[in-house]
Amino acid sequence: MSTTPLHVAVVGGGILGASTAAQLARGGARVTLITAGRLADGASGRSIAWLNSSGDRSSAYHYLRLLALDRYRSWRAARPESAGYLRFDGGMKWAGPGESFRDTFAFERSVGYDSVWVERDEVAAFAPDVDASAVAEEGAIFNPGEGWVSLPELIAALVADAEADGARVIEHAGAARVSVDAGAARGVVLADGTLIEADRVVLATGAGVPVQLAELGAAIPDATPGAFVLFTDPVEPAVRTVLNTPRVAVRPTPDGRLVLDADWAEQTVTIAEDGTVEVPAASVQGLLDEASRVLAGGPRLRAARVGAGLKPIPGDGEPVVGAVPSIDGLYAVFTHSGATLGLILGELLAEEVLSGTPSPVLAAFGLGRFDGGQAPGAVGTGAWAPVGQR
Asked: Which domains does the chain have, with CATH numbers?
């Protein structure tokens, strides 16, 4: 006896929406992927996209990130063409003046993370694209298993998979809202009033998730700031290593450019009344100067474009993913580190939606932890705080 496939509407055309849609379609659901503009035009299109589980994190979050890296390696092995947009050439980081990364290194080793201490005179052997004189006198940490991904290319591949499995994609739908009736999600209403009926709805709209949930009476803590990344013109010689330095984070792009960001630069942006994130020219030049200083040969860097907008960050710093307790059939995913977590969260969330059974791996990250309006404090000892949209 045949049964009608579950129809799931996924709202959000970034890495989390695309990944979830692809996994749902692969699992046999009828999927409609809806995005306000074009695919990857939000935070996923302006991400430093560093793949890692670096620094001090809760054990549950560290485990989730290790699974996330595993899924990227599986993707890379199965798709040789992904070598152009997905690389594992390692990452290097070092401490700023008056700081030390010795405790961070000890923590990473204690949890089994692949972490190597590099003395200044050894830098060239691990990261020849780094100017050793810019490295802290104590040395640096090199993480051989880290890498980067260019999310627009990955999203395109995921959406192509979803469409091959029968998914429908609606771009330029404008601001969509979840249709709720009698305490259950019934579908999605597009900006033009069109109702897309669905059995389940997944909200994966990045910084929009807390706002949309609040409108439905399901508030979650939100620490989303305005932020930006800077894309340079192509650079010679090519940079391979992901760098997280005291004043700039650097990663390559498939076409030989660099993506730059930094906490100090993020803190200089302002948000206009219309929601536009405004970036000072001095911050753009500052990132270019800092990147030039840490790269071997001090290449002259030029800005190609700035990607500015809101950077999704939950109030307690940890992912928010799973069923919305107060609304039957509604699921949400909201996280920092969307690049690192993109494949694994899409897989596990899709499995929850299809089976109706919560994933044990995601138990620590459910929306139920915010019951009573009190979000848990940030986890970890703060030995190191990553920068940028990861």
From this structure: 7-46+152-221+316-373 (3.50.50.60), 88-146+224-310 (3.30.9.10)
